[in-house]
């Protein structure tokens, strides 16, 4: 049996004990030992065993002595926990193979060689009739008087081999933990690389899609060019002019408008076109509960890249939007958050914002001064601002009524003195002219329109000084009940019979009504319209037909319909035209779709 390494916790009491003086007086020695043990027990020199691993004692059958229960009995009394002999080696006497005790006859004791036995067992071993007394384990010579009782509260034996095995296992665990940490770190790095390559793959897929769109676009241009050089197609027996042919003397070879591109623009209600920079700026509301209001900049060049520009907190919905006509890469927009803001389309940030006393419904750049701007408010007043004075506006002028000003235009009026600027505004009360920097700044109503109803739209072309105002019938609450049976019944939002009025300035404060035509206009929303000047040889008025959801192009001043551009039966929210040296851009915004038309192929 291998020798265990023994650690002994020695008690605080005296450990001295009287041993027999000679081997011959063994009986006398035994009596003396018994007396000494009884005295030690009486005096308290033998402490009680505290270790939970010491086995309980029971009365022996021989000599009234006390012996320990066997390992098997311990296993039965240990609530089903069976101990192996190797697990508790060092707690048993190697002679009788039973556990020693801290008192009585089988008291734990040791020899000078260090081996431990029960006192009764080693005594019998040494008292046998042998000439040479030796240790049962190492055969070292010893006598009975060399036996020493051990007075200890606990004795724990640790197997050296097991200890080494435990240390080896602990080292292996540490090594495995380090390897696991390295593997986890490598896995995290590989995940980062995988995410990076996935992003790279998505970017390449996007570029591939853009190249495909550009290829299709170039193929479309080649097809248009080939058809232009050949014979134009015919429709219903009448020949449709191609891009290079004349539509008539009024249009000087520009031809009808053709659909060039459809863009998906969810949540958009307003837009404007910058023909010089070839970009479109849209006012949108992102989808979702409490959607955020943004401005979206979209390129007019394939593959039509777009970027959302977040608006400052508190801006709310944008009611009007205009890109600076002087080409300074600035955009002006008015919002219901009582803000008039200027955006830089180069850095895509708001560079200037004015606080207003009321929500803004409209805005405009001054045609004669690039640093002066205007805002039409919900309370019917109009504000004048100089962007060189960022702290406050130049002036706020009250309107004739408190109706919201839904449209304003800065006009060219060469008949006024130098330094005087003119602004046209539209509200449900009608069209008003405002003169600033002069002696009279209070607006006056343009009476030449006549009693057409409530003004819902105003279009102005600075190149030709043509004005077209749109009207719908007024709702008279006093006679609404009495005349309800006589009025035609129509669904709300389906359109009513209104009118378009064409005006032109003849003097500084006088206008001439050139023509009036009937039109299907919206009975709830405020529609948008535009006046286009084609190479200074003719003017077209563009508006939406509320019943057919078509974009109608009419010649001015006769209001002759020249072209109807079909849509997908969606109401038209906004119409804008931008003149360019290689042909004009006409945009039509409906629900979720922006259609781009041109009288020349987009470059």
Distinctive features:
single chain; 603 residues; alpha+beta; 34% strand; disordered N terminus
Describe this entry's structure for a reader.
This protein is an alpha+beta fold. The protein contains four helices and 37 strands. The strands form eleven sheets. The protein has a four-stranded antiparallel β-sheet with strand order 10-37-36-35, with no helix packed on it. It has a four-stranded antiparallel β-sheet with strand order 11-12-13-14, with no helix packed on it. A four-stranded antiparallel β-sheet has the order 15-16-17-18, with no helix packed on it. The longest helix is centred in the first third of the chain and has 70 residues, at 160-229. The radius of gyration is 53 Å and the shape is rod-shaped. Residues 1-83, 230-255 and 477-490 have low confidence and may be disordered. Keywords: Metal-binding, WD repeat, Zinc, Zinc-finger. Residues 55-64 have a biased composition (Basic and acidic residues). InterPro entries: RFWD3, WD40/YVTN_repeat-like_dom_sf, WD40_repeat_dom_sf, WD40_RFWD3, Znf_RING, Znf_RING/FYVE/PHD.
């Amino acid at each position: 049996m291998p020798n265990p390494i023994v650690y002994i916790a020695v008690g605080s009491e005296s450990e001295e004990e009287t041993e027999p003086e000679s081997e011959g007086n063994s009986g006398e020695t035994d009596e003396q030992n018994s007396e000494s043990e009884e005295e030690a027990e009486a005096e308290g020199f033998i402490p009680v065993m505290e270790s939970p691993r010491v086995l309980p004692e029971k009365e022996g059958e021989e000599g009234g002595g006390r012996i320990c229960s066997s390992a098997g009995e311990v296993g039965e009394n240990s609530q089903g926990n069976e101990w192996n002999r190797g697990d508790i080696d060092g707690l048993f006497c190697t002679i009788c193979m039973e556990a020693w005790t801290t008192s009585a006859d089988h008291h734990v004791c040791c020899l000078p060689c260090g081996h431990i036995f029960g006192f009764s067992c080693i005594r019998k071993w040494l008292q046998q009739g042998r000439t040479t007394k030796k240790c049962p384990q190492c055969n070292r010579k010893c006598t009975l008087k060399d036996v020493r009782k051990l007075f200890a509260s606990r004795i724990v034996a640790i197997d050296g081999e097991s200890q080494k095995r435990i240390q080896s296992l602990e080292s292996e665990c540490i090594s495995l933990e380090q390897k696991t940490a390295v593997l986890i770190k490598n896995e995290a790095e590989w995940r980062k690389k995988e995410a990076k390559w996935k992003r790279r793959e998505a970017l390449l897929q996007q570029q591939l899609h853009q190249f495909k769109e550009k290829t299709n676009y170039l193929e479309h241009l080649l097809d248009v060019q080939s058809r232009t050089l050949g014979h134009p197609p015919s429709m219903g027996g009448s020949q449709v002019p191609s891009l290079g042919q004349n539509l008539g003397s009024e249009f000087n070879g520009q031809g009808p408008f053709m659909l060039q591109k459809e863009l998906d623009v969810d949540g958009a209600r307003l837009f404007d076109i910058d023909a010089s920079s070839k970009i479109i700026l849209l006012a949108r509301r992102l989808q979702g509960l409490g959607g955020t209001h943004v401005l979206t900049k979209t390129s007019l060049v394939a593959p039509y890249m777009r970027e959302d520009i977040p608006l400052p907190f508190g801006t709310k919905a944008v009611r009007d939007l205009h890109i600076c006509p002087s080409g300074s890469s600035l955009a002006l927009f008015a919002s219901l958050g009582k803000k008039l803001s200027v955006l830089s389309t180069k850095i895509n940030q708001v560079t200037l914002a004015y606080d207003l006393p009321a929500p803004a419904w409209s805005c405009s750049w001054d045609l004669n001064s690039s640093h002066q701007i205007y805002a039409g408010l919900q309370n019917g007043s109009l504000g004048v601002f100089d962007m060189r004075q960022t702290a406050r506006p130049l002036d706020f002028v009250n309107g004739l009524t408190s109706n919201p000003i839904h449209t304003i235009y800065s006009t060219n009026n060469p008949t006024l003195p130098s330094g005087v600027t003119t602004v046209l505004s539209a509200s449900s009360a009608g069209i008003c002219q405002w003169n600033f920097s002069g002696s009279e700044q209070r607006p006056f109503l343009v009476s030449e329109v006549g009693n057409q109803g409530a003004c819902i739209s105003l279009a102005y072309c600075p190149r030709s000084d043509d004005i077209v105002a749109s009207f719908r019938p007024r709702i008279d609450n006093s006679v609404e009940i009495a005349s309800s049976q006589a009025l035609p019944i129509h669904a709300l939002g389906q359109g009513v019979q209104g009118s378009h009025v064409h005006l032109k300035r003849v003097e500084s404060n006088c206008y001439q009504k050139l023509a009036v035509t009937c039109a299907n206009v919206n009975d709830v929303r405020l529609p948008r319209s535009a006046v286009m000047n084609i190479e200074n040889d003719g003017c077209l008025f563009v508006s939406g037909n509320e019943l057919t959801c078509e974009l109608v192009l009419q010649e001015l001043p006769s209001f002759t319909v020249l072209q109807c551009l079909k849509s997908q039966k969606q109401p038209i929210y906004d119409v804008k035209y931008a003149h360019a040296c290689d042909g004009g851009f006409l945009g039509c915004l409906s629900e979720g779709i922006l259609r781009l038309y041109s009288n020349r192929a987009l470059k």
